[in-house]
Amino acid sequence: MTPERFETLSEAYGGDVARWPAVEREAAAILMTADPIWAQTVLARAGDLDAALASYHAPGGTPGLADRIVATAPRPRARWVGWLAPAGMGVGLATACAAGVLLGAQLQAAAPATNASDADALMTAVSEDVGLYLDDDA
Amino acid sequence: MGDPDEELLSRVASGDPAAVRALVARKLPRLLSLAGRMLGDAGEAEDVAQEAFVRIWKQAPRWKPGAARFDTWLHRVALNLCYDRLRRRREVAYAEPPEVVDEGPGPDRGLFASDTGRRVAQALMALPDRQREAVVLCHYQDLGNIEAAAAMGLSVEAVESLLGRGRRALRAALIDLKEGRNDP
Q: Which of B78, B104, B130 is the last residue of a domain?
């Protein structure tokens, strides 16, 4: 590293070599060992500005700011919501099945009655016909 | 090196309330520091921080590990929000020129540690935006040169140049502080 490069880095990154780009630090250390008084003078000049910059503190935020921000985060999805959808589908299917079974049962229940009525009517007709024949025979 | 925010971000994405609080505690001071020094206004810095968190909540479920460091991405987001506000200020200033000269960032006056702090704030605000951005990222936000370059969308060499020019301008603006300290 040249002395010019050392000064350029101190002007850009300040008087603390630990804050310089990592790839430059080893070469800087060699230069500091070779000419410590010059290097310390350069670093002290940059350090003066670092100290001035450090006196400007950032605002901390008004009370309650963090809470207000936390309140804007999306609400966590409740655990039951995770299985509600498939469970809901299951309930729907079960309901549909139950409805189908009930309808089927009703139809089943209605069907014999209809058949019975038909049979009764047929038997009545047949018996009347038979009756007629019987009457004729009689 | 892995991203130190990745695990926390993943928990935020899964809706962990403790992770949300932890992320706010970790990033809010950094956002206020960045926006406060870029804008010189504590109230606007809070607005930027809140807007940045809204973007975090949207981004967390879609975050892809390894693409970029989360902190670098967050700095880029906050800087864009700051630049939107700086642009609006310039438009308003152009449309409505102030009748009196503002002597400094008024809303922050009570927040400075000392008169030196106030002088530094004024000198920082007087820098061109990109020089101020470089100084704020590298000096106050402790970003390395590679991270700062990524956040600024510039080369490392360009960031170094901006830093050097910015710090030289600051030194010139604050030269009397140094002379005052050296006086007996």
A: B104
Quote the pLDDT of residue B67: 78
Which of A6, A45, A69 is the best substitution to test chain B (most B C-beta atoms within 10 A)? A69
* Nearest-CA distance B88 → chain A (Å): 22
* Residue among A14, A62, A69 whose CB faces B53 most closely: A69
Maximum Cα interatomic distance, chain B, rounded to a whole number of Å: 61
For the segment B179-183, the average pLDDT, to the nearest whole number, is 57
What pLDDT shows up at residue A23? 94
Domain that holds residue B169: 112-184
Query: What would the two tokens of residue B82 be?
Result: 């700051």
DSSP code string of A52-95 = HHHT-PPP---TTHHHHHHHTSPPPPPHHHHHHHHHHHHHHHHH
pLDDT in tens, B49-77: 999 999 999 999 999 887 789 999 999 99
Show the tokens assigned to A98: 């139950």
Domains of chain A by residue range = 3-55, 84-137
> For chain B, how many structural domains are there in total?
2
Predicted ipTM of the assembly: 0.83
